[in-house]
From TrEMBL:
Belongs to the glycerate kinase type-1 family. Keywords: Kinase, Transferase. It holds the Pfam family Gly_kinase. The keyword Transferase applies. GO terms for molecular function: glycerate kinase activity. InterPro entries: Glyc_kinase_flavodox-like_fold (IPR018193), Glycerate_kinase (IPR004381), Glycerate_kinase_RE-like (IPR018197), Glycerate_kinase_sf (IPR036129). Its EC number is 2.7.1.31. GO terms for biological process: organic acid phosphorylation. It is an enzyme of class 2 (transferase). This is Glycerate kinase.
Amino acid sequence: MRGHVLIAPDKFKGSLTAAEVAGHLAAGLARAVPHVPLDRLPVADGGDGTVEAAVACGFAEVRTEVSGPTGRPVAASYAVRDGTAVIELAAASGLRRLPGGTPAPLAASSRGTGELVAAAIERGATRIVLGLGGSACTDGGTGMAAALGARFLDAGGGPLPPGGGALRSLASIDPGGLPSRLRGVTVVVAGDVDNRLLGPDGAAAVFAPQKGATAADVRALERGLARLDAVARRDLGAYAADRPGAGAAGGAGFGAMAFLGATVRPGIAYLLDLLGFPARAAGARLVITGEGSLDRQSLRGKAPVGVARAAARLGVPAIAVAGRCALTGEQLRKARLQDAYALTDLEPDPERCMAEAGPLLERLAGRIARDQPALGGAA
């Protein structure tokens, strides 16, 4: 396909999935410029919605039951294609999986994520793409590793209870069956968080309060993660705490690197390649991307900026849609976005924007068709 418009948005969090955003934009554009071919490619940056984006791009969805962050069973899914499995931590170990939404900052575990990895390997996956984000736990990825055969032991040789709060009592790590389980398997972490494991910018200090941790909990979790780092260095020769991304998802980035041998890749850039963006964008007249809020956080490697930069490398102009846009024209240009359209341009009430995002996106598509020269508009 050439001369087409590629619609490649991320989700509008709390309102529409990436596929729904793409669908509404396509519906509006089809009415406004029916002669222009349209192609939809929902995207994600490694957080919530990554599996859904992969499924929308042709991966098969596999549903299973795993342990939630507090141990209760939850239904979760991952995506597979040609030996590659896409897994998002949030699906099993995320805040949205907490029973009743009640935080468990000291006891929540990443075990269910490890169970998803194990299920994918048993199905024949030889490459695991792990998206980190939305975590309910600060356990340094120990639950994930335990589900794959590692043992985290106290001074008496017994297994530690789940969660980051117990890590202060960690005495030794036995890799158990983990090495054999992962033989021949490549693990890649796709994420945009560059925090280290420990310190004022680390997993406990920055992210644990978002999971319900008090100041005392944060101190306890920091001590536990420091103990985990020390024992992992001594018992496994794993020096991962100071690597960028180790603090992601409550230290699950550390666990993926230290226990699963994972490499870390910038989330959106890696996933765009995995989802086939370069081939789908080649020859396009315009790429439309977007997310719920375009703001300074977007500039730190979020999906719309990653899409715009990838499009620029192909010589294709890109614009963005959003629920709200807090970026200046200069910031947009530096991000390689030629323009941005916000739902708040049509409806100033944020609550109505959330509730009526679909119809508003379709109206916004008509404005894009009138404005954009690539679509015959006058801008």
